[in-house]
């Protein structure tokens, strides 16, 4: 069929633009690899336009975006250190300008270095609290002012908080703070129709978990859940998809442990 130029414009406006306009918009922090990258893939499949946030891994983030676009999705790589409030403000502004106002915020970016409390340096303490706690605070504060009513927020805790293993004092303290934010913020958003929940994964086979562990340590962790395996990123992405999707509309202020039954 031969389209006249004006018909092509009309066709574009009616079909293509309306498709992008009706897409819900999600920001996934720390989506250049690991669990965040899998969440970005899953939310794109579920029809979200996805902002793939990263702090330093530009190549990896660009590759995820290219993959999502190739599959027909709308996606955008956005560099922002979540620990930096100005970066986070800029990230929201960029996403709003290019994809539209935000419907779902997934606060996945996080770091872990297991070190006994007595051996923890000031720098490691500041970095862990900066990214895990201040990073979540920065995006939540921005979301309060800017997110669409009816939106969904998913924060990231960890099952380590329930296990009290040596070496996890600082990390667990950051995740306890994230859980506290989750419970209170859910109530502070009264009237907006926005839910705020957290996911607390058990061990998941990503670089955050695997790096620095011996094969023996990894095997021990793999045997901990009654389901006798490590989690995979898609085990967690599917839980996030549920929490940001239509079936979780009545779930609010909760922490959902996805860990194969460890705790
Ligand atoms: P990962 O593989 O190490 O990926 C972390 C992601 O966060 C990367 O994309 C990284 O990108 C990004 N990131 C790090 N610092 C950032 C910053 N300041 N600003 C923006 N992005 C930043 O980790 P993961 O295992 O997928 O973990 C994801 C979340 O799950 C974390 O909150 C973690 O605490 C939680 N979790 C993981 C496990 C597990 O066993 N893996 C268990 C429980 C909970 P750049 O390289 O660009 O910085």
From TrEMBL:
InterPro entries: KR_dom, NAD(P)-bd_dom_sf, Sc_DH/Rdtase_CS, SDR_fam
Signal peptide range: none
Keyword Oxidoreductase: yes
Assigned keywords, A-Z: Oxidoreductase
Start and end residues of each Ketoreductase domain: 24-202
Pfam families attached to this UniProt entry: adh_short_C2 (PF13561)
Family membership noted in the UniProt record: Belongs to the short-chain dehydrogenases/reductases (SDR) family.
PANTHER family: NADPH-DEPENDENT ALDEHYDE REDUCTASE-LIKE PROTEIN, CHLOROPLASTIC-RELATED (PTHR48107), RE15974P (PTHR48107:SF7)
Protein name: Short-chain dehydrogenase/reductase SDR
Organism: Caballeronia insecticola
